[in-house]
Amino acid sequence: MGLARTRSVALLGVDGHTVEVEAHLGGGPAGLTLVGLPDTALREARDRIRAAVINSGECWPEGHITVSLSPASLPKRGSGFDLAMAAAVLGADGAVPAEGIHGAVFLAELGLDGRTRPVTGVLPAVLAGARAGHTTFVVARGNAAEAALVPDVEVMAVASLGELLARLRGNPVAEPLFADEPEQAAGESPPARRPDLADVLGQPVARRAVEIAAAGAHHLMMIGPPGTGKSLLAERLPTVLPRLSPEEAIEVTAVHSVAGTLPKGEPLIVRPPFCAPHHTATRAAIVGGGSTRLRPGCVSLAHRGALFLDEAPEFSRAVLDSLRQPLESGEVIVSRSAATVCFPARFLLAMAANPCPCGKSGNACTCSSPQRRRYLGRLSGPLLDRVDLKIELQPVAHAELFADRAYAESSAVVAERVAQARERSAKRLFGTPWTTNAEVPGAELRRSFPVPSAALRILGAALERGEISARGVDRALRVSWTLADLAGRAEPGIDDTAYAYALWSGRAQ
Questions:
Q1: For residue 379, what are the domain limits?
Q2: Largest CB tally within 10 Å, which of 9, 93, 253, 380?
Q3: Are residues 26 and 97 located together in one domain of the fold?
């Protein structure tokens, strides 16, 4: 009879919880009982582990084995517990020193031949283990770079169960029997050229709106016929956003690690992400969810970046209205019978729409007024009320298209102005929970950052006429602060609030 324990990590959303893996070897008929609220994939681990141990040249213990995953009330999912359970079973049998595995955290899937395979969610798992006081983590080689992003931890990358056992026994580690996947040869496929704002000719108001959106993290709505550059502008929005700070990069990488969407060869995401789902995407795909495994949706994959909804009226009404809560709170709470998880969702929303179902402009349009109203009516008032910038794009004339080539600014030039504006707002918001103008609550905006009364007259008059809501006034004030930051002014003036109101109402020229 023997007992050994080690540790792994269970993920609920992007939050990790340390799990103690105990293995008890006792009498009775041969077999393995797994307890502790495992899912189907975890129950199947019994056969995987046994085959991996035997194919690694080890003897599978005789007698009945009980493996407990504690705390028992916490749901456990996935195959990342394989290596921890194999180490605990062999430790209980005395095949490896029990003290060598007691303090380590194991995160890897096992193949039937004993090789280790990478799993998703290693970064948040290692972060959770480090917060719990653990310093040694054993992962598959494919997860080594990701796990090493966490400071002050020791990462042991192993290619197989046999390699792990050799290290635990103090034996020399032979060359791995299983080679890693070959890297793509250098120069085989040159990196694609990044989009640049200079590619968009004409549309000076729209390009200015993209700059304002990036500087203050304001949501953007573009309406115009096909071919006016709506998609081009939205795709170039991430190129003018500031690079992620180290803390933001860890947040974003953790979300993509859980979703399994980390770019190959890039363990740390340092650029703002860009997500553009198709209009047929479901509500679960957009905000996150699932029946068995709760996965982050597009709003979380766009965390600290941009979410682009092209042909926004073609999305279902339920999907569009589900964006209202994360736009305000910056997070998504998904509740299911098994668990409730919270995903971060602080994103910049960009939407594009045609003016009518046919998409044509001027006299070429064949849609009736009721058809146009119904089409754009799919975008609810409460959703549009949360969008700070609304602009209408017109077709670019031939002369304007060619004349603008010499004056179109590149993304690098615009990004420099955006970075300077972000620095000014960060200094003003220092000591508060917010970092951008769009995040400041309306009450705090009016109390701590008052605007001169003369600059408020146009907004007050519009509010009296019923042309803007109270929420709209707050959003216009946030945009006016961003305009002041871009211009290097200490506070917004009359021109700033007037232009902010024009952008909010869709009348900017």
A1: 197-505
A2: 9
A3: yes
